[in-house]
Write a structure and sequence with these properties.
Strand content: 15-25%
Number of helices: 20
Structural class: alpha/beta
CATH topology of one domain: GMP Synthetase, Chain A, domain 3
CATH superfamily of one domain: ANL, C-terminal domain
CATH architecture of one domain: 2-Layer Sandwich
Largest sheet: 8 strands, mixed
Bound molecules: 5'-O-[(S)-ethoxy(hydroxy)phosphoryl]adenosine
Shape: globular
Helix content: 25-40%
Oligomer: single chain
């Protein structure tokens, strides 16, 4: 069980640490040569470079940016007027150029850029799976795209977008499965300067509506369906539902581009819909890169905050490009021409996929693996099968996945040759030491350094992380700040906290990959990130530092919960619940969960006509509400536990006492909570109220 799931204290700045972990792992013997020659070979070298990056950010970052291509040079490296940062001011570049064309220009057009593997495995069962393959083909479908292939496909699709009237600055919504065309679509947008807004394929049609409206996006790129665990996710149906809802409004969607992937039945709107293949057939295959100002928007990515409405995080061109390039290079030690194959298992719908499947990896000229489907399809060894067949050298996944692997059993990885692996990474939530040790021993054979990377949608790339051949690691700690990152632990007044004392994690100086705003909501941008601690970026996480200077992340301090490494605002789930006719009021908190790290616990009060008559009716209503939340947000937001109650515990000022709910939810981990009687709960709530009154 993860002991990180809940910070010990969440409503004040003094956070008690619950972790005691002393095992220190030095970078494994010989790792530097195994990773193609480490860029940073020792802790001393890290400290020296770090010092330079903080004392001379202009020098440090212009050297990094100089490794990439610019159409016009910048006049100043950074301009910082809190809360606004500008990087490489006046410079002009194109991120797609640096991901693709630059590699071709240096003579590497035939190198592999993307290794893609589809989910279906012929002969492995799963309805319809084998239909994807011609007779006689065995094994999953694999496509390898060279930089030349990628340029060809990207140019065609970029022209297709232009032919539909998409211009520089127009937001293109992308709602696709993990197919190579997703990378093509993203890069095509970057090429013509149309910011993309990628929506994770697991989100529902209401989530599409909210995001399309907020971004004022007129074009959606989607697929007929997406493969997931042998079944088809009806992406086009979800898009149709969203478009139909918006039809006739100022936010009506003009064009839907549909990639044929699963051949599932879809309905067709002759005015709105166009097939991807027909569009690109008619498009020219040469499309020049738009010269983008360094501070032009590259993309919008929606993420949860503490209110019900997702925030459109704005990232711009030059700074994000340099930051993801450099963090990828150093943290994974990417070196071209060394037979490296990098695999990040995230979905491109999350920031991890944006930064570490596409934007940070391609400019480093190491092939990036994209896998379409589920980790346990058709068997729980699918990931290890992929690692073995594609000889993956750097592998980047989430603690929640590692916990699932542990549960499925070590025979699955043990059945495969994982000796190609050199560096392992984790992201998304604190990793519990048990999972860290399992990763280290079972997957890494004690030879692979683990880089536990702390960062956020808002930070664009890695902020606190080990470097594989330099940083001693401690299970559960993300260790030391990346170059240029001035991270501190402070109290509410901005005073730095002593060693081993919990506080708020903040960043004092701007960094190139930082968000530039929340789309259309300047005030929320200021309030969320730059108001709680004067003069600093406030990350929303509680953390502490140990005597070695290592950072330990203790979890969110706001009303955001981190479910399977994915952020959800408790308010979003609450809004979804109360939008159901049976629910009058709802409070949602995190609770410890064996696999997900944090699960979702919902406390609901019901309307008078909706009180369940008996246990089986209550159970029915629970499953109705779970489905309702899936409809409103997506399956990831389904509560793991729903409790009905006469009243929610509140303070006198009417604030829901979340801390009390959290302790109730976490005291009851096995799912037995559903039998708890309403009376018990109300009594508990009343007791607490009395005490505090
Ligand atoms: C959490 C994902 C501990 C943290 C890249 C952060 C982590 C939130 C780690 C951002 C880590 C991410 N250790 N906690 N290595 N990485 N987090 O925006 O709470 O989806 O604020 O970005 O995930 O989640 P997001």
């Amino acid at each position: 069980m993860s002991n990180h799931a809940e910070p010990a204290v969440t409503e004040s700045a003094s956070i008690e640490s619950v972790l005691h972990e002393n095992r220190v792992f030095q970078p494994p013997e010989g790792v530097s040569s195994r990773i193609g020659g480490a860029y940073v070979k020792s802790l001393d070298q890290y400290h020296a470079l770090y010092k330079r990056s903080i004392e001379d950010p202009d020098g440090f970052w212009s050297e990094a940016a100089g490794e990439l291509h610019w159409f016009a040079p910048w006049s100043s490296v950074v301009e910082w007027k809190l809360p606004d940062a500008k990087w490489f001011v006046g410079g002009q570049t194109n991120v797609c150029y640096n991901c693709v064309d630059r590699q071709i220009a240096s003579g590497h057009g035939d190198d592999v850029a993307i290794v893609w593997e589809g989910e279906p495995v012929p002969g492995a069962g799963g309805a319809g799976a084998a239909l994807q393959y011609e007779a006689g083909i065995s094994g999953p479908e694999v496509r390898k795209l060279t930089y030349n292939d990628l340029k060809h496909d990207v140019c065609k699709f970029a022209n297709a977008l232009k032919n539909l009237g998409v211009r520089k600055g127009d937001v293109v919504t992308i709602y696709m499965g993990m197919v190579p065309e997703l990378a093509v679509a993203v890069l095509a947008c970057a090429r013509i300067g149309a910011p993309h807004s990628v929506i994770f394929g697991g989100f529902s049609s209401s989530a599409i509506v909210d995001r399309v409206v907020d971004a004022d996006s007129k074009v959606i790129v989607t697929c007929d369906g997406a493969w997931r665990r042998g079944a088809i996710v009806p992406l086009k149906d979800n898009v149709d539902a969203a478009c139909n809802e918006l039809q006739g409004s100022a936010n009506a969607v003009r064009n839907v581009i549909v990639l044929k992937r699963c051949n599932n039945n879809i309905s067709w709107n002759d005015v709105r819909d166009t097939w991807w293949h027909e569009l690109v057939d008619n498009a020219a295959d040469d499309c020049p890169c738009e010269h983008m100002d360094s501070e032009d928007m590259l993309f919008l990515l929606y993420t949860s905050g503490s209110t019900g409405k997702p925030k459109g995080i704005v990232h711009t061109t030059g700074g994000y490009m340099v930051f993801t390039y450099l963090t990828s290079k150093y943290v994974f030690n990417l070196v071209p021409d060394q037979q490296q194959v990098f695999w990040c298992t995230a979905d491109v719908g999350w920031v991890t996929g944006h930064s570490y499947i596409i934007y940070g990896i391609l400019p480093n000229r190491v092939p990036t693996v994209m896998y379409e489907g589920a980790p346990n399809y058709p068997q729980p060894d699918r990931f290890w099968d992929i690692v073995e067949r594609h000889k993956v050298t750097q592998f980047y996944t989430a603690p929640t996945a590692i916990r699932a692997f542990m549960k499925w059993g070590r025979e699955h990885p043990d059945n495969h040759d994982l000796s190609s692996l050199k560096v392992l990474g984790t992201v998304g939530e604190p990793i519990n030491p048990e999972a860290w040790m399992w990763y280290h021993e079972v997957i890494g054979s004690e030879k692979c350094p683990i880089v536990d990377t702390w960062w956020q949608t808002e930070t664009g790339g890695h902020m606190i992380t080990p470097l594989p051949a330099a940083t001693p690691t401690v299970p559960g700690s993300c260790t030391l700040p990346f170059f240029g990152i001035d991270a501190v632990i402070v109290d509410d007044n901005g005073n730095e906290q002593p060693v081993e004392t919990g506080g708020l994690l903040a960043i004092r100086k701007p960094w190139p990959g930082m968000l530039r705003g929340i789309h259309g909501d300047r005030q929320r941008f200021i309030d969320t990130y730059f108001s709680r601690i004067k003069g600093m970026y406030f990350a929303g996480d509680g953390a502490k530092r140990d005597a070695r200077g290592n950072f330990w992340i203790m979890g969110r301090v706001d009303d955001v919960i981190n479910v399977s490494g994915h952020r959800l605002g408790t308010m979003e789930v609450e809004s979804a619940l109360v939008s159901h006719e049976a629910v009058v009021e709802a409070a949602v908190v995190g609770m410890p969960h064996e696999i997900k790290g944090t699960g979702i616990a919902a406390f609901c009060t019901l309307g008078p006509n909706h009180q369940p008559a008996d246990k089986s009716n209550a159970e029915k209503l629970r499953s109705t509400l779970r489905e309702h939340v899936a409809q409103e947000i997506g399956a990831i937001a389904k509560p793991d536990m729903i409790r009905f109650t006469d009243a929610l515990p509140k303070t006198r000022s009417g604030k829901i006492m979340r801390r009390l709910l959290r302790s109730i939810a976490s005291g009851d981990e096995q799912g037995t909570q559903d039998t708890t009687t309403l009376e018990d709960f109300t009594v508990l709530a009343k007791l607490r109220e009395d005490k505090e009154g």
